[in-house]
Design a protein that fits this description.
There is one protein chain. The protein has 340 residues and is α+β, with helices and mostly antiparallel strands. The protein has 11 helices and 6 strands. The chain has a 4-stranded mixed sheet, sandwiched between helices. The chain has a two-stranded antiparallel sheet with strand order 1-2. Helix 9 (276-283) crosses helix 10 (285-292). It is globular and about 65 Å long. The structure holds iron/sulfur cluster (SF4).
């Protein structure tokens, strides 16, 4: 039971009770915590700190500005606490003290800024709700998730009993001495990702799908075999990326990796956008824009939100042909061999 019990780990532990966070959280987490810091500074009316691990881009600042607008609207004029010392949340039974991004005590609600894609944060929000209900002597609580890159608000509501039940069930699975790892979408963030027996067993299935010998025709001929093979390849892909990084580093250091060598390619050639102005003078704006091609709707939307006070011109948005892609059907990938 070496995983520190933190509210932020609960969504992962809900899927795999053996999940352990990596000590180095990575660049996405650094961006998330930088945006949190800018959000708090912005709410306090202070300038953004200059010593952030992830220096913000214009898009980051626009995402924070959206979150400030949203939390202001959600508060309906009631006080919003955003200073770290005001937003500490002691969750009953947890050693770690969590920190919410914003608390609106009069509305019995808190908000959490989330960067990146929309994921499940229900168990983390239930833990905060539980702690905040105890602090504020409330029997119900609302959690607003501000997905600032997607400009989307997701609102979750909990009674005390619901929050207690959600948190307790994750903690019970985590403390179970017989808990088993469950391969899932969080494996690549897990400290055990290279050594986890569930993952290694799954990876081995890539070639043992059609035991006693690997037979690709048999893989393609049977839907169960096909599913198991793809699931196994999903794990192998992640391991291959790490193996390639290790091989590159060793080759650069002068080692020999049989069958592999380093190659280098020239970087892509480009014209800096500041220098395109000269081309506009020469060819005219329309010809230069035609060379650039289409602008993504999300880029125009971001630009519009930063500079325009009129509604976004939805009629300009055109849709390309729909694409079909393949993805794992659930957060939990099956490790069970199928009955043949
Ligand atoms: S690697 Fe995946 S399955 Fe294994 S413990 Fe970590 S999260 Fe669970």
């Amino acid at each position: 039971m070496s995983t520190p019990l933190r509210p932020s780990n609960l969504p992962k532990l809900a899927v795999c009770p053996c999940y352990e966070p990596q000590p180095n959280a990575g660049s996405a987490a650094a961006r998330g915590s930088s945006l949190d810091t800018i959000f708090r500074a912005r709410m306090a009316g202070d300038p953004a700190p200059l010593d952030l691990v992830h220096p913000p881009t214009e898009e980051d600042l626009a995402a924070v500005e959206w979150a400030v607008t949203m939390i202001t609207a959600l508060s309906s004029g009631s006080p919003i606490l955003t200073r770290e010392d005001e937003c500490r949340v002691a969750v009953p039974g947890f050693d770690h003290i969590g920190t919410a991004d914003a608390i609106m005590p009069e509305r019995l609600a808190h908000a959490d800024l989330k960067t990146g894609q929309k994921r499940n944060y229900r168990e983390q929000m239930a833990a905060y709700a539980l702690g905040l209900m105890e602090q504020h002597f409330a029997s119900e609580w609302t959690a607003h998730l501000l997905f600032c890159d997607r400009r989307e608000v997701v609102t979750l509501r909990f009674t005390f009993e619901e929050a207690r039940q959600i948190v307790d069930s994750v903690v019970a699975a985590w403390t179970n001495p017989d808990k088993q790892p469950s391969v899932c979408d969080y494996c690549s963030w897990c400290a055990k990702s290279d050594t986890c027996p569930a993952r290694l067993t799954l990876a081995a299935q890539a070639i043992s799908t059609t035991e006693p010998a690997f037979n690709f025709e048999a893989v393609l001929a049977d839907n169960n075999n096909l599913g198991r093979f793809l699931t196994a390849c999903h794990v192998l892909d992640a391991l291959r990326e790490k193996a390639e990084t290790a091989a590159k580093q060793r080759l650069q250091a002068g080692a020999t990796i049989p069958g592999w060598k380093l190659t280098s390619r020239r970087g892509a050639q480009f014209i800096r956008h500041e220098d395109v102005a000269a081309c506009v003078e020469r060819f005219g704006l329309n010809q230069v824009l035609a060379s650039y091609g289409n602008l993504s709707a999300s880029k125009l939307r971001d630009l519009w939100e930063r500079t325009a006070d009129a509604p976004f011109p939805e009629e300009l948005v055109k849709h390309g042909p729909a694409t079909i892609s393949l993805r794992a059907a659930s957060a939990q990938l099956s490790t069970q061999p199928q009955t043949k």
